[in-house]
Every structure is written in C-alpha cells, then in structure tokens.
Amino acid sequence: MAETSAPLVGVIMGSDSDYSVMADAVQVLREFGIAHEVEVVSAHRTPEKMVQYAREAAGRGVRVIVAGAGGAAHLPGMVASMTTLPVIGVPVPLAKLDGLDSLLSIVQMPGGIPVATVSIGGAKNAGLLAARILGAADPAVAQRLAEYAEGLTAAVGEKNAALQA
Ligand code: RP5
Question: Is 143 a domain residue?
C-alpha cells in the first residue's frame, strides 16, 4: 500500500499479523498527511527482502523507518544496521509473554546501531515520532504537530471542566 507521492516514512512489520498494532502508526501518518508506505518485511522469513529494503530505502526518498515486530523481534535492529536512516522500533505484543520479549529484543541494541524504541504496542507514538523527525526540517509538519499538542491540551481542559459540573 502506498500513497501517491514518494513515501517519506516506511512502515514495515514482520508479519501481517502485526498490522492491528501498526495501524496506529499508519493512522497518525494519514492524519498528518505524510506520504508513507506499508510493507511486510520479515527478518526471518524474507531476509533478502529485508536487506534490499534497508539498503534501498534512503535512495528511494524514505526519511524515517518505523519497524514493528513481535517475539524474537530482530527486524528493527537488523534494518538499522543496514541504513543510516532513523529507525523507530515498535515492540508488538504477542499472546505469550505480553510483548516483553519483543521489547527486550528491540531495545537492547549494541552501541553504534541506534533504534528509537517506543513502548510495547506504542505504534501511535512511533508515528508521531516519525512526524517529529520530519517536522524538524519541515515547518508545515511542525505546525501540524503544534496544533495536535494544542488539541491534547484542550481535550484535557474539557474533561476537567466536565468533572467540575
Ligand atoms: C514476528 O513473528 C512477527 O513480527 C510477528 O509479530 C510474529 C508472529 O508472526 P506470525 O506467525 O503471526 O506471522 O516475526
């Protein structure tokens, strides 16, 4: 699945079964109007596709990669080892171990190969972090992020007001 303009964010995941979690990142990118692509890329089942994806992403214009995986979640770290793009790892929770295995597989990267790891199931923040990375050099995206933050503040204010009624 791809947007019409060249994708700036690549959302990849180890299995289509991860999509129910990763959809939150896709939703954020849609809301912010950020061109993105979505691909199943498995470190274990499609290792050659993973290598090709990681090596070619920057040259295709991708600026940030959001990579989600569950269990033995090697995808984000392996991709980070083959690109200089920022990689945001999303630990996908599975039925066994509740995602702690996914988190530990992604977060404990060796020095030199960074992966920005969000919380277990935290694909929404992964999408927002990708937007922030792009927003550092794109005032229009930064403006939308500022408006988003204002919306959060306003929503808390409304909920607080409702508590006073
Ligand atoms: C991981 O194995 C995937 O990221 C997924 O979270 C997990 C299970 O995959 P399926 O067996 O559901 O395809 O590589």
Answer: no
Ligand 1 geometric centre to CA of 134 (Å): 29
Buried b or exposed e, range 107-139, using 16+ CB within 10 angstroms: bebeeeeebbbbebbbbbbbbbbbbebbbeebe
Residue ID of nearest Cα to ligand 1 atom 14: 14
Q: What is the mean pLDDT of the chain?
A: 96
Domain housing 30: 9-138
- Is 15 annotated for ligand binding? yes
| Rounded Cα gap, residues 19 and 154, in angstroms | 30
Going by CA atoms, what residue is nearest to atom 3 of ligand 1? Answer: 14
SS3 helix, strand, coil % of the chain, rounded to 5?
50, 15, 35
| Pocket around ligand 1 at a 6 A CB cut-off | 13-15, 17-18, 42, 44, 69-71, 92, 94
Give this prediction's pTM.
0.95
Q: What letter would DSSP give residue 81?
A: T
Reported ipTM: the value is 0.97
- CATH of residue 76: 3.40.50.1970
